[in-house]
Amino acid sequence: MTSISTDHKILMDLERLVVNSDLYMNLGAPPIPTRFVRLLDLLLTACEVPEERKRTFIKAAACLHMALTTHEQIPLQTIENEGLHRVRQLTVLAGDFYSSLFYQQLAMAGEIDGIICLSQATSRTNEQKMKMYCGEEAVSPSIRKIESVEILTAIAGFFLVEHHIGKEWMTVLLPLLLLDEQEEHPRWQERFHDAVSQAEEIWRQSHFPVWLRRELEQWIEQEHRNL
């Protein structure tokens, strides 16, 4: 079972892994996706993944998420100012650094199939972005959600989450994914409450793990208090 203390330990490990003094001095603290880490912790715990393997995949997936998020922040327009140009170059390097840590974590653990799985998720994410930016699809107000969904879906398939939670697993986690949209979507609260209602219908079903329902309920209650 997951817990706040477990989440904290993983986040501490992740921070030690990704903090680079040069990047920190010039770009500030790394964009560690705390909610995403907690979601992965719940998901992999539900799949009964052994603790050490779970921590490896969480750190690797978080690094991949950070790489995609960081590269999304790179300005596309020409920059004349030398200082801003330097920041852009460092942002590119930061994204590359996080991406290399993703590969490193899985490679050191011998998780070659995991590398293939998440690399394919990255390709799908970038393909969606290219279609948006080339005008084939509407630009999403939340690029981060696309990245989170693709990575979570890849890991869920890799660890056969449907067997442990059911086919509705994404509906269960959707309210928590929407939390990162609260500053970007004008109807965020309405969408969030609708998603919670749908998730609760699944939580009440007999096959759904009781401990996971309690964890999700406590998390959403905590987030409600912080709104």
From TrEMBL:
<protein>
    <submittedName>
        <fullName>Heptaprenyl diphosphate synthase subunit 1</fullName>
    </submittedName>
</protein>
<dbReference type="Pfam" id="PF07307">
    <property type="entry name" value="HEPPP_synt_1"/>
</dbReference>
<dbReference type="GO" id="GO:0009234">
    <property type="term" value="P:menaquinone biosynthetic process"/>
</dbReference>
<dbReference type="InterPro" id="IPR009920">
    <property type="entry name" value="HEPPP_synth_su1"/>
</dbReference>
